[in-house]
Amino acid sequence: MIGTSRAPGTRDAHRAPVSLHGDLAEVGIDPDDLPDGLVIADENGRVICFNAAAARITAVPAVEALGRPLERALPLEDLEGRRWWQLTDPYGGLAIRVRQPERNLLLPGGREVLVSARYLRMSPTGPVRRVVVTLRDTEARRRTERSHAELIATVAHELRSPLTSVKGFTATLLAKWERFTDDQKRLMLETVDADANRVTRLIAELLDISRIDSGRLEVRRQPVDIGVAVGRHIQAYVAAGQPADRFLLRREHPLPALWADPDKIDQVLSNLLENAVRHGEGTVTIDVTPSASPREGEDAGTSVTVSDEGPGIPEESMNRVFTRFWRGSKRGGTGLGLYIVKGIVEAHGGTITVGRARGGGAEFRFTLPVSAPAYLQ
Fold first, then answer.
1. DSSP 3-state assignment of 30?
2. Cα angle at 367 between 212 and 370, to 5 degrees?
């Protein structure tokens, strides 16, 4: 067994409670297969197990750690520079202690790790026979913390502009109402209304991200005619000033009856069409076609493909498109829309992909299972 050593002595019924390493071997688990670092010291404080994850996290080869005193094989300090094993004194401290809760500690060189410890005794107040230490790298936690910090910074930045505008226009109107013409008042109020809508959208995005991350995004299924939904979004863009010939909607018939959350499907379509209009060029083509269901046990599904004729997405960026804060260009946006799109599609049991369109631009394709209720099947 690489990087490990069995505890001395035989395993009888009396020793079973403290023979953790032997228990792992008995059920066919090699400590080197564990995802976290595992360090075990015997009753004399010498290391008898130092698995591969512990060697990776500490950068100490197992052969150098085995047999050494625990405080030398694993020289930990707290964030104030105090030596951890001297502070906790696992072998000479309180006889009723059984554990040390997980906390951040430092390895030599200042590398931070998450450490927890368990003290195994023959009897409730007897001497410590084993000290079991688990180690975890903090990088995953740091990535999560950085992601949360970036989210807060991004949203704060995006909120500042519309709120500043709202505050400025309302203060001006309140202070100088009589000086403005009706047209000027209408223009300022329309701007305030647009900025308030922008704030509302940002808050809705935050709530969606929270629900997606926690797995609490609810889907309220109803019959959805997705071809009609796409046509409605195209009409809105044309009414807002986009030329009608910029959009091409192609629908195959017959389409299977689709049961989905209409509000969330509108959100998906809105994000994908806005992405194509804002970042793409030329004709925006939307294909609605029947397809195989992405969910096992169902035959039918519906696919929607949105493509444009712009420069497309660089190959090296393809795997980051659906991550938080990814932006295809510097034309604004929070970089959260496609992350939310992916979460909504997957909450429906569907899949979404990105690639290069025939015309050279970006192509987004999502597929949803029909998800008809059981009483209709």
1. coil
2. 95
- 3-state secondary structure at position 11: coil
DSSP string, 228-269: HHHHHHHHHHHHTT--GGGEEEEE-SSPPPEEE-HHHHHHHH
- Burial environment of residue 125 by CB neighbours within 10 A (0 to 12, 13 to 18, 19 or more): exposed
Please give the model's pTM, rounded to 2 decimal places: 0.60
Each residue's pLDDT tens digit, 81-102: 889 999 999 998 888 888 999 8
C-alpha to C-alpha distance for 324 and 271, rounded to whole angstroms: 14
Q: Which two tokens stand for residue 376?
A: 């209709």
Each residue's pLDDT tens digit, 176-190: 999 999 999 999 999
User: Around Cβ 99, how many Cβ atoms within 10 Å?
Assistant: 12
Token pair in block for residue 279: 């970042």
Among 231, 334, 239, 314, CA closest to 273: 231
How far lies 161's CA from each of 14, 42, 148, in Å? 70, 61, 21
DSSP state for residue 19 in the 8-state scheme: -
DSSP at 220: -
- DSSP-derived letter for residue 6 is P
The H-assigned helical ranges of 129-239 are 139-176, 182-214, 226-239
Residue type, 55: A
